[in-house]
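Lab manual, section 2.4: Encoding a predicted structure.

Procedure: take the sequence of the chain (411 residues), apply the prediction step described in section 2.3, and record the output as structure tokens. A sample record is shown.
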Amino acid sequence: MNDVEEAVTRVHREEWARVVAALTRRFGDLDIAEEAAAEAFATAVQRWPTDGVPPNPGAWLTTTAVRKAIDRIRREDKRDDKHREAQMIYDDDPPEPVGAIEDDRLRLIFTCCHPALAVRARVALTLRMVGGLTVPEIARAFLVAETTLEQRITRAKAKIKAARIPYRVPSAEDLPARVTGVLAVLYLVFNEGYLATGPGTDPLRHDLTAEAIRLTRLIRVLLPDDGEAAGLLALMLLTEARRAARVSAGGELVSLAEQDRGAWDAALIAEGHRLVRERLAAAAAGAAPGRYQILAAINAVHTSAGDVRDTDWSQVLALYDQLIRLDPSPIVALNRAIAVAELDGPQVALAAVDRLGDTLAGYHAYHAARADLLRRLGRSRESRAAYDEAIELAGNSAEIAYLTRRRDQLR
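Recorded output:
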């Protein structure tokens, strides 16, 4: 990949959400915003190799996308919308500020996460419109077919247009009821950056994790007393703190047990631990912790251990027991089984994992967990077959490299 191609790729990751959000604010139409943004990036691919990358790529893309949008509106020649069209084309005055925080991308998130949409549609639409993820990437996150995801996004945009869902941050009194869906979206955006699944993408996408953290900080400002907003921020910080140690120089994923803990970001860990302590104090005062707060506490246990041998697995398992009562999902059960293996041995853990096979057969981490437990039990042939399944289903290049090496080490 040459320098211009690298610049286009980097700018797409950094500026996609800003361009789409700016166009949505101006034109009030997600279809127009997305298509015009895509056309602007396509124009950049054509022109930048000759003209050079502009000094302010984001501004260039936004200006180009606005022109593309106006051209589209003119071509469609909507007679009923002539007055609105004239305003779009000639009114350069910015709209009045709306909502508690002045951030176009945050407005876009709340629009995409409106309760009039189904929960899955909210998440898929926001990952596409704000996160800039492709349909295949989102489909992997949902474990569904790409055509299903495409239809889900199309229907969600049509619903926003038909219901005239406003493009704004909700009022202060409406925020608590609306924030749950937003947090779910931000968590999935973060997870896609934490372990990127797109073919040809970097195994870790700091742009996505950084954006998810930035927007979660804004949610935290909006709702300083919301325990789950604080918990999600803590979870993200404690996870992001390990980023520098998670992929080897050879491009292979490094397991938590093998990571150089001296490479972890001490400042992020300290901030994450402080947030966890705040939520533990709130829980002691009677505030029941939510899913993100418990996950943050689990990560706090891991990042408190100077060596993997110092990990308090009893505390980790107790937290998973608390989490599974709140969220009895098979993925939580799978992660709990990994903690069980450290306390009760791989045989007990394998029995728990095998019970999840009917629901997690298409999930690569299920097969990876089985492969490791079978390896520890000396059942090499079965372990190799499980590794093959995990490698086939995994979408992250660093994880595939790690799983392949582990498989090839089997006798």
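Check your result against the sample. The two ends are 38 Å apart (CA to CA).
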